[in-house]
Structures are given as structure tokens and as C-alpha cells.
């Protein structure tokens, strides 16, 4: 399997995960850790300008999809009451 085939496979796996679960992978779940690390590595490559040109457009699309879904631990903050929020802000 070539590097481009592996990249495409990971891209499809992450896109499928976000569409099925409506959230990004969690760093606390070991089953999701591999795909999360792939995502973070590619974000660093893009920021440093080391990502090949043929992958940039597809990865930017993946970033826009990821921006529209919440991470797993954001739900707790969205459902807290105003009284509970006072203690979280301390």
C-alpha cells in the first residue's frame, strides 16, 4: 500500500466517523486514538507548509467538516445550569 493510499484510507475513516457519530474522535478512547493522531499530525503538516499540494484541498474540506461537529467533552458544558457554570469558571 502506498503512502497516498494510506492517507486516503485514513481520510475516509475520519470523514465516515464524523458523519456517523456527529463528533470528532475523543482522545480518551483508545479505539479512536489512531485516527485522532492522524488528524492532528496532518493539521501540523498543513500549518508548517509540509503537506503535498494534492492533499491540501481535501484536508481543508475535512477541517471544515470537523469545525461543524463538537468534540465529545463539549456536551457537558452545553448542558450545565447557570449555577453549575459559576463553579466551572473558578
Task: Describe this entry's structure for a reader.
- The chain has one domain (3-88).
- Helix 1 (3-21) packs parallel to helix 3 (53-67).
- The mean pLDDT is 83.
- 72% of the residues lie in helices and 0% in strands.
- It is built from 5 helices and no strands.
Rounded mean pLDDT score: 83
Q: Give the class from helix and strand content and strand pairing.
A: mainly alpha
Radius of gyration: 16 Å
Please give the share of residues in helix: over 70%
Q: What is the succession of H and E elements?
A: HHHHH
How are the secondary structure elements laid out?
Elements: H1 3-21, H2 30-48, H3 53-67, H4 74-78, H5 82-88
Helix pairs in contact: 1-2, 1-3
Provide a concise account of the structure shown.
With 90 residues, the protein is mainly α. It has one domain.
Structure keywords:
single chain, 90 residues, mainly alpha
